[in-house]
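Researcher: Structure prediction, please.
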Amino acid sequence: MKNKKLNLILSIFLGIIFLIIWLKIIDWQEFINYLKNFNLKLVLVFSVFYLLAYFLRSLRWKIILKPIYEMKVIESYSIFMTGLVINYLIPVRAGELAKSIILKNKHKIPISQSLPSIFIDKLADLFPIVIILVLIPLISIRSNYYLYAVILLLFLIFMLFLGFLFFSTNHKEKAVNILNFFLKIFPVKFREKLSGFILNFVNGMTIMKNRFPETILATLITLLAVFSEAIYIWVLFKAFGAQISYFKILFGYTLMNLTYILPTPPAQIGSNQFMWVLIFSFALGVNENLTSAAVTFSHLLTTVLIFFVGMFSLFALKIRFTDILKLKK
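Model: Predicted structure follows.
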C-alpha cells in the first residue's frame, strides 16, 4: 500500500513538473486563437480511427489468449477497454493486472495463466519501435539529445522484454530458477505461493510457441492499429492548420504511444502536453502553440471517448464502476 501511495505521489509530482514546463513554453493568446479556429467536425469524424486502433489491439489480445480461453469479440474489447480506463486513472499500469483479475473472477482462469498473454500483448505494443528506427533516416528531425535518449530507452526496454520472452520459452527451468532466486527478498511464508505462480507464469510464456500464422496476424494487427491512430492524429493537426506529412505524424505519434510504457501521471496530465511539444514541435518543427492546442483538445476528446467506451464495457461485463479498483484476486 505504501509503495502504491509513493508511486502515485511521484507520478503526480512528475506531472506537475511537466505541466509547469509546458505552461512556460506556450503563448496563451496564440494558443487560444488556434482553439477558436480549428475544424471540429473533421476531428470528430476521424476520431473513429482512434477507437478503431484500440478495437484492433483487443483483437490481437484475443488471438494471443486463444489457447487458454477463447473470448468473444465483445468480451475481449470490453475487458481491454476496462483495463485502459484503470490505466488512465492509476499511473502504475494496474489495468493490465485488472484484465487478468476479471478473467479469474468471471471464468476461473488463474492470473498466472492469463498474465503472460498480457505481457506478450504489451511486448507487441513495443514492436512499433522498429517503425521509429526505419523512419529516422527518412524524415527531417531536429537534433534533440533528449528525444534520442527516449528512443534508445524504449528500444532497450523492447529488447529486454523480447529477450525475457525468448529465454523463458527456450530455457524454462533456468528462467524459473532465476526468478525464484529473487524470491529471497520476500518472507518465507510467501515464497511457496509465489514460487508456484512463477512456474505457471513461465510456462504460460510459451503461449505463442509454434503459432507462426497467429504471430504474423498479431503483428499485422499491431501495424494496422498504429497506422489507424496516426490517421486520426494527422487529421487532427490538419484541422488546426499544420502542414505536416503523414509519415512525420506516424513517427511522432508512434513514439508518443511508446512512451506510455514509462511512468505517467494520472490521466497523463502534464506528460502528454510536454511530450507532444517535445516530439512534434522541437523535433518535427510544428508550431508549439498549434501543437499545444491540438494536444489539449485531443486529450479532452480522447478522455471522453475512453470513459464513454469504458462505461459501456463495464455495463457489458456487468461490473460496477465502483468495483473496478477493488476486484478480488
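Model: Residues 2-16+34-323 form one domain.
Researcher: Thanks, that helps.
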